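your task:
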Amino acid sequence: MKIAIFTDIYAPWGNGGIASSIRAQKSELEKMGHEVVLFCPGFDAKEKGVVNVPSHKYIRISDSVVAMRPSVVEAFVLEKFPNFGDFDVVHVHYEASCSIAGVRLAEKFNVPLVQTQHGREDVAISVNMPHPIKLLTATVLNFAHGRCLSHTMKVKRDHYQAPTFTRAKMWSLVVNHAEHADVVVTPSNHFAQKIEHYGVTRPIMVVSNGISQELVDDKFAARKMQEGDVLKMIWNCRVSKEKRIMPLLRALKMLKRPYVLHVYGDGNTLKRAEKYAKKHNLKVKFYGETDRKKIIKRMAEAHLGVTVSYNFDVQPMTLLEAEATGLPVFFCDPCMMEIVPQGSFVIAGGPEAEAMAMALEDMPAERVTEMSRIMLASRKNVLQKTQIKRLIEVYKTAIELKKTKSK
């Protein structure tokens, strides 16, 4: 197959979950003999099969380059690929400018369209922006998106996932974007239920993200810990407000057992977290943005991976990386229980610092080895080479649905 991928988040600045998952999918598709062209913002694409679309030189959002408006991206793509209709499928991985251009091109040339719903921008905007700026931002984004792609649905406030006008507007954007696809993909069942609740009528297929084999080629041993040992924990994701590192640090302040937390990542809460940890003499070490390969090596030395977001993550790549390396995990969100094997995790009784502290304090040291072995036993399930077969099924389904609609 000839596959066009459109995304607004990719290398070299994209070291997070979305970028990592796309990179792994592209690599495995190419190994299977498929031709992949990836369109993304940027200026100096050196990777084979990656095309940088026109982008703003001085505008950044969370350190990511921003593509110019969809019409400019479309014109550029058609200049480079005048026979765009030769693509067998278009796969879109976001809801911003470059991704919108991918949707419009797929519709213009009647190419089957797959849309992966990755994130919870409704939460990200609500948590990170003050009122009324967050409402204004959500309103402008929803309006701009509606100018580029037709909106047929409106999400109203409710007590499920849209308790505010800001979050309802962002859900409207997500749902209307998904309605343009032939097949919608979500990485987890719990998120599939959420988008279905808010009105997505397109076929929804759950396909887990995956880890590149090259990233976890090393052999990993089951972790060992004895009573009285220092509990070695690792945080390897954004240090941002929605990821909730501050409640975790408050939990560590209450912890009586010996511990150390290694934090790999950057974000809008990093300086605040560093200041708090220093003030309270916490055993926390911050390393900033770090290469994933180096982080994987550090995971091999840890007892427990921590990710304490709540009602935000769809499928954290940190959990998949933990499973691939045999690292037990700690989290607060019960939705995460579907991501990793039963018996491989410690879960807090709630999102509060007190609940986290209690769960970490009560975890028996001998459980670490048992949890680690469970992770190692299922590690092949999270490799991208395992998941790619399911993605090929999605592409074939989208192609067949498009054929049926065209008759």
